[in-house]
Amino acid sequence: MFRVRGKDNLCVDDGGSFNAATTKFVDMPCNPNSVNQVFKYNIKTGGLESVNKPGLCIDDGGALSAATTMSRLWYCDINNQNQWFDMDESTLMLKNPVKDNLCLDDGGATRAGATKFVMGSCDNNKSKPALRGALSGSDAGGEEEDWTHPNNLCVDDGGGWGAAVSTFVDKPCNPNSPNQVFKYNIRTLEFENVNKPGLCIDDGGSLSAAGSTARLGYCDANNQNQWYVLDESTLMLRNPMKGNLCFDDGGGATAGASKFVMRSCDNNSPNQHFEILSRPAMLEEKKKSLGTTAYDVLTSGQEIMLRIRGKSNLCVDDGGGWSAGATNFVGQLCDPDSPNQIFKYNLQTREFENVNKPGLCIDDGGSWKAGGSQAHLWYCDPNNQNQWLVLDEDTLMLHNPMKPNLCLDDGGGTFPGGTNFVLSNCGDDSPNQHFEILSRTDFVEARRKKRIDAGIDDDINLLNSGQKLMLRVRGKNNLCVDDGGGRSNGATKFVDRTCNPSSPNQVFTYDAKTHQFKSVNKPGLCMDDGGSLGSGSVQAQLWECDPNNRNQWFVLDEENMMLRNLV
């Protein structure tokens, strides 16, 4: 390593690139783990080769006069006179033996990164580089990382899933957030979002302080706006191609208060120092402090329900349609047996698919403005941005990452079916935009326990078991459901009869998948409500079993032991 004598532990640093002539040499705080500061000297060729970047050597840029070119890495070549250096042991100056009176010169700065290295006229009265000996570098990194800042705030890309959709802000650290986890490529100097492949931190392009705000951009190893080098001694991130500019959170002390920019590097600034934390370590820390969270349930792959917080047990309901666009989403009383309320979330595609209606997903309707369209089911398509919803774990809000500041909103209703769901401007104070993530299994178990505590027999397991069963009308002196005795379509109507397990008219099995009651003794015939959509206008009968016949769909409401038709 080469430490510049008399300059507060500053060492010769190649600027950070792994490619020829991409960055210029600067002074940086001495760090034996830096891949940019460790060299080997070939006494035969006079070349100084980077230990961590084999085949690249210190090159003075080619000038034959003082300060006309800047030093950089270049392909090692024993015939390239721009790479020849001799050490004057008495003065500790590095001189090019074929360039009269030219010595390696740091440009004159007294702080890190302030000036570039050149060949200057040899002057023994200047501060000089001192040869200290080669040390090994660090590993190549690549671990998933969070960056933390004061008050447990982390670097957050703002939530966008495309280039330049959102700008970087501080947010409460959350290792489950798709906006906060990155991998660093030590060769390209880029931070790539782990959850948004192909998108990297980009400073926005300005060459002056605060001239642009940071955002995600398409990863491009040649894009200098995406190059960042960590100063391990100060935990500051600077752009090696932009003089004295460092990553800066804008100065806000609370979440989302300011945007990230590049500012003049200042070791005294509270906005420019970043802790690098392992995501697995943060996940473990979070699990210890919070246990299972809503995000854990959402991303577990299990069947879930979305309950609207603070609205008397109303859940997200697709409206009942079984085809794309047939009905719009509304709030309905939470029912784990409803085929309209059970979903699975795909973390990779960011889609909510209806469990009972495979291939149909929640879709916002297509509008890019608040209230412009109503949510409905539509054919699942991972490329359809209208189906992308991401949970903010802190607020329990679901936002579309491609539609800035638009969140899922229940429309404002406070009773079942009152209003249709839309995308609306995100508002933390809105009572219509916060959704509890419920495990369907846990919901059913809690309901079962409640019924048992109330003294009601727990028959749901028998119902769903596929075993033979009878339906006794509660409180009516041992009367059971009886099909009337017919053995063909509509031959007789259902009546109450004294319960008799030997009767061929009273014994059924229940198909939990198709929601049908099938006669055990009359194969192929099922309980059918007769077809009316009005109250009391037709009588129930046996009819040929058809899983697509909605008149045969029945679901038990465990709260009150009532059988209702799903649609």
TrEMBL record:
Record's superkingdom? Answer: Eukaryota
The Ricin B lectin domain, residue ranges: 1-128, 144-277, 302-438
Pfam families in UniProt: Ricin_B_lectin (PF00652)
Designated name of the protein: Ricin B lectin domain-containing protein
**Source organism of this protein record:** Phytophthora fragariae
